[in-house]
Amino acid sequence: MTDDLAGLHAAPPVRAPLVGRPWGTTRLFIMAAAFLSGLAGTTLSSDLEVPTSGFASSPTKVQEPISPLPLSMPLDEGKVRLGERLFADSRLSSGNGISCASCHMPAFGMTDGRSISSGLPGYPGITNSLTILNVGFNTQFSWSGQTLSLEEQADKVIEAKRTMGGSWEEVVATLSGDDSVAAEFKQNFPDGVTRKNIVDSLVAYEKSLITPNAPFDRYLRGETDAISEDAKNGYQIFKDYGCVSCHQGINVGGNMMQVFGIFGSPPSITKGAETAGSAHGSGIADDKPVFRVPPLRNVADTAPYFHDGSAKSLSEAISLMATYQLGREISDDDVSKLESFLKSLSGDVSPVLSD
Ligand code: HEC
Ligand code: HEC
Q1: For residue 251, how far is its CA from the centre of ligand 2 (angstroms)?
Q2: Domain 2-23+73-208 has CATH 2.60.40.740
């Protein structure tokens, strides 16, 4: 969270495993089959059946730098449900009247829609909020990338002064005193309400927030007409110009650290390496801000953009990226095609979990 900035890890971040911990014993297959009828069962390896870059109608085997989200997730339904309940419970902020859901809202692609997150009285936010859709597929977390697992994030955020501002001791005591909540914990964990079990439930819920039916994923799975010609051209530009060298993998980002301002200094960078939200001691650059490359799934729904919310529209963010990350001015036509491609990355949350 914002309090991550206090230099929690001096060492450069390492790649964390995709899934932080083994799942519980009772497993639920959260199927997105309703959305994807006829497509379930398609191979999910990176060796995908996709149309060629020339958009031929017959699929050819090629290696794509972006892979589709899985159609199902082995998750413990009880823990997901409990996590969903806790996510909206303001008692997790010990009297601050704020819950996770206050800043991660479906209407804004699970962000808060503000340029800079509100924070708490006396502790204003210092960065834009991040989406938690598909968050289980990132390998490092927060703008600074210094948090290496969802468990670490959830554990820290409860007491982070700019976000929840709670106290673990109080949270565990209050929830233990609520018979209904305590009973639900007992059903899912033999040891009932504990700090670790609260964290595990929140993480299970977060991992359930997948959007596997995005048109672009359907296209990758072989549905040639799932995206427009503009979006196909936009994807080609995304690869040809090199956006994909930073925004790639299953989340189209979320898995590496990069300088913001490889060519010149973006207008929103006012404090160099000390810019709010940037990593400290990453070993990548001393004089420029370094961020985790943000994931671009559902990006059309998470305006405004960048660590400080300074880019109000997707087209503005795209142009600034071309200028400062690739050192090239791109035409309005390119911007618009890239935008079409990025819009095709939006999908709905798996229906099993959104009821
Ligand atoms: C006051 C607003 C606020 C509240 C409340 C809040 N968050 Fe956040 N969340 C943010 C902001 C801002 C960021 C980006 C912080 C940063 O990078 O320093 C963020 C980032 C995250 C991330 C990292 C996403 C990624 O891709 O790296 C996760 C996960 C997350 N929040 C989960 C939670 C959970 C769980 C709770 C409740 C226990 C919560 N948040 C409460 C504002 C909030
Ligand atoms: C060298 C690595 C790199 C390249 C190349 C790159 N990006 Fe980025 N991108 C980043 C980083 C780092 C950020 C975060 C900047 C910030 O927020 O301060 C970012 C942010 C973004 C955002 C805003 C996301 C959000 O949630 O706020 C969009 C949109 C984006 N990039 C699109 C593109 C496009 C389109 C291209 C190609 C024209 C591109 N990027 C090329 C590293 C890169």
Answers
A1: 13
A2: no
